[in-house]
Write a structure and sequence with these properties.
heterodimer, A: alpha+beta, Immunoglobulin-like, 5 domains, six-stranded mixed beta sheet, five-stranded antiparallel beta sheet, 8 helices, B: Serine Threonine Protein Phosphatase 5, Tetratricopeptide repeat, 4 domains, 9 helices
Chain lengths: ~600, ~260
Amino acid sequence: MRYKKIKKQLANVFLFIAVFICILNTQAFAKDIKFSVSLDKDRVEVGDMVQLGLVFENTQSVPALQLPEINGLKVQYIGPSTQMTNVNGKMSSSVTHRYRIVPMQTGTVALGPFSFSYKNDNYSSAAVDLVVVDRGQAPLQNTAQGKNVGENEDIDGRIFIILSSQKNKVYINELFEITVKMYINQLSVRGIDYPSVSAQGLVFEPFAQPRQYKEQLAGKIHDVVEFKTIAYASQQGKLTLGPAKMNAKVVTRRKAGGSSGFFGSDFFDDFGGFFGRASIVPVNVSSPELSIDVLPFPDQDKPKEFSGAVGSFKMKINASPLELKAGDPITLNMVITGTGNFDSVQSPTMGALNDFKVYNSEVQESTANSKVFEQVIIPQKAEIKKLPQVKFAFFDPKKESYFIEKNKEIGLNVLPASEKLAVIIDTSNQTPVLSSTRVLGQDIVYIKEYIGKLQLDGQFLYKKKKFIIFNVFLFLVFIAVYLLQGHKERLTHDIGYARKLRAPKIARVKLQKASTYLEQNKKELFYAQIFKTLQEYLGHRFNRPSAGMTADIVEELIVEQSLDLEISEKLKDCFVQCDMARYATATLNKDNMRAILVKLEQAIDYLETYKQ
Amino acid sequence: MKLKSIFRFVIILLGCLSLLIGVTVYSQAQNSNNQITASFYKANELFGQGNYDKAEKVYQEILASGMHSGNIYYNLGNTFFKQGQLGKAIVNYERAKRLLPYDRDVQANLKYALSLCNNSIVPLKKFGLIRLMNNITECLTLDVWTILLSAAYFMVLVSFAFFMIKKTAIFKKVAVFLLFCLIMISCLWLVKFQWFMLDKQAIIIVSEVDSRFAPALDAVVHFKAYEGAGIEIIDQNSAWVRIKTPDGKIGWVPNISVEKI
């Protein structure tokens, strides 16, 4: 059972697909087949290749045609290319049979008209001309305007713009569409700017995002970039639209200076892009001008409320409150909707306003399809029973006549300024109950009793010295922390630096001890202390092992660091006396000891002064 | 260890210093001028008696002494309102609003005074970011923005100092985040600052004035400006000011017809 059900469902799906394909085909053949011929370029040099396309629109099943032999041309079929497009739900298909054509002699060759029969119908195309010139011959001047290409690849006539207007006759304030199309044929174009269109007496909206598609023009397939905008005329008479101007950048191949030698051949030109011979050329193109005839509003049946609104509009009025006291405001909300030029829509007019105080209306909201006005009116008398009628007049350019939108009568219940509003509730089984609506008065809030925070006029916190000093102090503290942290990190990572810093402190302690030995006349201990101080200090100072410090090594280090050689001599003396003291202590007296102590102190002072 | 103790000491020192400055600023704020306060009470009394022109004079004298407060501007605004000078009332409510942006009385009176004006100008829509920045800056006074800026600056320095000492990713993230906050607050502070410094906002103080294409009485009238309308002064000479309305119209009006906020 289940298998049967699945089978039935599958059959339904296939049936649906088959019907869908049939509908598609029916739609395709329901349309007429359009047959046209295109060339990728209409001017070539002898021996160059040009591509011919036979385009069959609204079908994809037309076979390739066998082209007749044409004198002076070699023709070879390349193959078909098909295309199917869906624009706004409408399907269209086409097939293009492409042929390679190589001209063998100069002159103008007419390609076509071609004709063929398909399903008992005959179709024929227009003819296109191919101009064949000698090799190296300069290209023709083009027909498009505005080129500055110079010696680069020929782009003349392959990029141009067309300015068009939806209407040539319009009324003042009537919206119409303006289109600028850039046509590009077999060129690589970048950086296309939005068009600039000069026009006096016309108001434009900015151009919308461009649309891109392909279009056949004069037998050639062009890439089209289409810009559209909406405009309206603000003055009557014959106005000039355009020229439209556009800037773009064309990527071209440089030709080899017109030489037809070995390196001037097409073969090497083909490598132009690869070897960096392509260049970008700025191109300015402009279109011809258009003439727009701007008609004035007809005087016949022109309503007095008409203020220039053009289009087709509806008006909706909303007023509140409808029950109020004389002197209280009523807010009118007037919404204009429809299609047309909303810039030209002014506030609707009101009739018989003698008993009202009227404030100017304000635009609350304005969109592409609506405009909302708000107006405040105040009834001055209690006798007023209805709102004045609101009218909005506009001119419909399609029907070429004026229309007036009016609101329905809106009733009002205006009470005298002191009277209370009576509200009757259900009186079927009860005695009447009077309820009152509280009417709130309006006035300003009373004055402040306290003076508040007094301050000098123009004196702000950022100007106060204490505040500035505080902030500068913060920054200085931050800098101090930064420097201290940097020092701490160096002490941790740079052993030489740490030893160099520690050296004088250690030396000072040891020299103090040596000085004590000197006072006590303990020669052996004194010299041992001096030697120890000498080695340890120099070891730390030059970041070397202390035990390995000798007079010769110290001399080398002093020379290496370009220090005073006298210091080297003093240190050498210290080393010599210390050596002597080990073997002949008796020869050294207290003066010698004092002298060596002074020398060592001087040497240390010097080395500390000239620390690197 | 030694560096840590130095850092602690610096933090404590900064705390003490901040406290000291805070106390000084507070005591200065409290040290109000007795004479000015007495004049203020006198003006309030005159207002209560319905003697609005005399009350106005006393409030003006207080302001002429160089001292001001939001409440003085507010009361002066009320005095002008009671005398039927809506434009001048609005000017003073706007001044009060700058000093007391959160005060509901100021907002209510300003709104009510504006509702009585014949102002049909539809302001041009501003770019979203500019509108947002203006709305944010309007919430606080310049001094409060300055304190916020200084606090953000302090926190950025502290967080970067911690990052230098600890070298951890969390301190780095916090420091970068606070730096971003500091940049944002700086931008808002600058918006507020230029608002004060450029001194371009003004109000029409006469019931109706013709705005002309040139600074001359025989110049063509471009549009009419009404009392209470907020405008921007873009140029001025000895007798005329060039104004721009919120809907983008530009024209010249006599300088006696406008008053800067």
